[in-house]
Amino acid sequence: MDYLRTPDDRFQNLADFDFAPNYLTVNGGLRMHYLDEGPPDAHPILVMHGEPSWCYLYRHMIPPFTQAGHRVVAPDLIGFGRSDKPVAREDYTYQRHLDWMTDCVTQLDLREITLVCQDWGGLIGLRLVANMPDRFARLVIANTALPTGDHPVGAAFESWRDYSQCVEDFNAGRIVRSGTVTKLSDAEVAAYNAPFPDARYQAGARQFPLLVPDNPDDPASGPNRAAWEILCTLPIPALTVFGAEDKIMAGGERVFQKCLPGAKGQRHRILQNAGHFLQEDVPVDLAQATLDFIAAT
What we know:
eight-stranded mixed beta sheet; two-stranded antiparallel ribbon; alpha/beta; 10 strands; globular
C-alpha cells in the first residue's frame, strides 16, 4: 500500500494546539497518530473525529477533561491529521477504517472507555462498540449516525457528497468552517488544511463520503445492520448531544434515543448555536455535558 506522510513542519505553531504527538503502527504497516493526555491510569475518554477534520477538532475539549482527572485519547483516522495517508482511493474502505481503529484500541488496551464520537467518528466508533462492548463504559453520540442504506441519506448529505467529488479545490478548513455557526479564524482554517500539503494527500478525505452506505446492498449495510442488532441489546449508558443547526444530521438523535437501551432516561441535549462541528461551536458545553454524564453514570 503506497502512502504519504505529512511533514512534521506542517503541524508547528498551530492555533491553540500544544499537545505532544504519539504514534503506533496499525494493520498494513501504517503509522497512526494519537494524542494521549491526562493521567495515564485514569479511565479513558476516546474522542473520535470525522470528515474532513482531525484530532485538532477536540483541542478546546481536552483541557476540561484532563483538568477533571480524565485521560483523553484522540486518534487521527488513517488518511487524516498526522496519520499516514494511503495514496489510492480504493485503499480506503469502511472495513479497513474499522480494522485500523480496532488495532489502535487493542494496542493501547483501552478499557472502561467513554466514547465521544461525531460524524465518521460515530460510523466507526459505534461499530467498535458493537464488536467489543466489554471495553466501553458509556457513549456520547454527537451529530452522527450508523446508516444501513435502508433509508434515504437525505438531500443535505447528497449535496455534500456531490460537492466533495466535484469541487476542484478540496479545502478542508473551509469545509469545516462551513459546518460551524461561529466561524473559524484564518489560523484555524489553516490548521485544518495542515494535514494536506496538496491533493495527493486527500484521497481519504475525498473517499469518505462515498463510503457511507446509501443503499441496502452497500458492502457496509449488512455489517451495520448486525451492529445495530447488538447495540439495541446493550445496557451501556448512551447520551445524545446534537447541534441545533446541523442540517445533515437533523433528527438523527431520535433513532439512538429510541433504539439504545442505555439512552433511556438520559439528559439528551440539543445545543443551540451549534452546527455540524459542535466541537468548534460549543466545545465547553459538549465537554461539560460529557463530564456530567460520566459523573451520573
